[in-house]
Amino acid sequence: MLDLDAPLSSLLPRAGDGTGKNADPAKWLSHLGLETGRDLLWHLPRRYLDRGELTAIRELTVGEDVTIVAQVQDVGKPQPLRQRSGWRVVVTLSDGRDRITTTFFMATPHQFGPVLKPFVPGALVMASGRAGQFNGTWQLDKPTVEPVPQGADAGALAEAPLPLYPATRDCPSYVVRASVGTLLDRLAEDGGEQQGFDEPLPADVVAGEGLLPPLAALEAVHRPRDRAQLAAGQDRLRFEEAFVLQTALALRRASTVTQAAAPRTASADGIAAAFDERLPFPLTGAQRRVGEEIAAELARPHPMQRLLQGDVGSGKTLVALRAMLTVVDGGGQAALLAPTEVLAAQHLRSITGALRDLAAGGFLGGDPRGTRVVLLTGSMGAAARRESLLAAASGEAGIVVGTHALLQEGVQFADLGLVVVDEQHRFGVEQRDVLRRKGTETGRGVPHLLAMTATPIPRTVAMTLFGDLETSVLDELPPGRAEVQTVVVPQDKPAWVDRTWQRIAEEAALGRQAYVVCARIEADDDDLADGAEEAPQEEPPPPPARAGKGAGGGRPKPRPPAAVSQVVEVVRTHPATAGLRTEVLHGRLLPAEKEDVMSRFAAGELDVVVATTVVEVGVDVPNASVMVVVDADRFGISQLHQLRGRIGRGGLPGTCLLLSGTSPDSRAGRRLKALARTRDGFELARLDLAERREGDVLGAAQSGERSSLQLLGVLQHADVIERARARARTLVEVDPDLARHPGLAAAVASRVTGDTAAFLGRT
After folding, report:
1. Is the pLDDT of residue 156 over 70?
2. What is the pLDDT of residue 680?
3. Which of 324, 460, 502, 682 could bridge across to 718 with cysteines, CB 3.0–4.6 Å?
4. Where is each Helicase C-terminal domain found (predicted)?
5. What does each C-alpha distance from 705 to 40, 41, 198, 215, 632 come to in angstroms?
């Protein structure tokens, strides 16, 4: 019996490589991290080439993509290049009347082995590439080549889509394709359905979705006869991906539904009602709706697990505060976990500012219905830390705001009833659960959970990543949010850049303030500052040297983005801004220094703050009306949208100036144009996801493991995700431990591992 978990060296025969050597395909495949038969079968094609009709050499057209069937006439010897380092080999093909050549380039002679394997003199091959001429001789540029089996119908072969695999210089796509074919042939001979291809999906799901069997689906995607067969195979594997992932999420959700939690309800004359009475503005319809959803779940005897999301300025913090006050009314405490000290301090200021005397419970002048709000961070002095720890442990503090310091041993609560996680993507499930376990120590059950995200998430992404959480969306902005104009400023036009600094000076003259954001702290930093998310590369990384490419080279390293230390000097010395009160804000400042800068900026004592992305979320200075992002083309769409959300918060019209050193028609230029065109965070999040692709969403594969999403696209396959989610939830409700579906349980255990599990752990 064929063991798919055996090393490829025992599954694939050694063969001649066209250079007279006995080649080992397993060694080539190891360059792709493929070690076993299962690894190889799940190394799926990245795209397919439609070869079309066969073309005679004399009928070729220069610049046209063509497919020819020809006999290998000659394989030249590796020759060193004259003008630069590297080697080349010329292969000559003939269709019986005319000849065509193709040239391959490599860094060293021994690298030609995999490339030249199909070129055995006298053999018939099918080659697809771009036709060209040089000195009157036809050439085929960067061809994809495969041998034509004896007796095969070349015309039928030309109609079949040609799979192209993720490959490297040391293991070209042809080697993968041939090796997969060998393995599929062996499975067919040995009865593949019994060789590790038992059906993992329930029979009613397979029948209801009209899915191919597993091995037939792999055959269809690796060796499709036509596009229809390919689509059927992809449909099967795509749905299986979605179903296994949704089952894992449904299992995690089911594990919390049976847990006990203390119900928390607000009282008619408690702190929550007092806060609502004092609100100087009405809640939006969305805030009321989501607030009612949260209140209903807090009143249940099972822990709430809810994701709260909304666009920039939609009022997520207010909704979370009302939930925390409901828990305080119910006799419990709430902990707000923030990823940075700057954000934690900002939350403390905004909460105490909103509550006023309600945040001084137990103190002289405090409202008797009130509570205490305390801060706990890692940099606090010993005396302040002891005071906060005592307030939390005694129950005196109804709301505790903190950073990772909340997770440390020694931090205790009297009755923790709600955990609010801000910027949930910065924390893992383990960290979240550490804090929640502090609530179970009192015997009142598992604390409720409210996770917040500052980045809007497309609905299908939320279904894929947060299937175990109920999702609430704030889809309405409060009145009074001013318009923010976004303008892209070319950095290679000095007059435009000068106008940028003049704009800051004009706003300062009106008593307003400005942010200037940079991606790095110091000029000699190799990496971006903490929190900065670099945008996708301008183009895919150049592949290693391969057919038609020279050795070495590659894209020049881009100019490093400007740093805070550089830009602050520009602001302080530029004629327009030299007299402004300017300070810096970044993660390397001492906590007291960061607090001082933010407090002075919030109080209007500073005109300009030159900062890293520490100001991305949570920082609320209503008087800030202008933002300049230096090297904006180096940031992702969503992060730029979040940064832009820091201005226009106080009714003042805002201006966001994006300094860019890239062409408007480049990938980054198009990204910035989209940002200037719309303020719809959900639309921008969809564009960001489409640009980054799912590999960045769910994580890339560890070496030797399957990629998290291979065929499933969370945007374009929303219908598949919805069907899989509904079926998975129904199944788990009936069989919560998958006892009746051992094959599915094994699939979940084996596939939701590595980076996929790590990513799901971050949700």
Report:
1. no
2. 81
3. 460
4. 496-690
5. 10, 12, 20, 19, 35
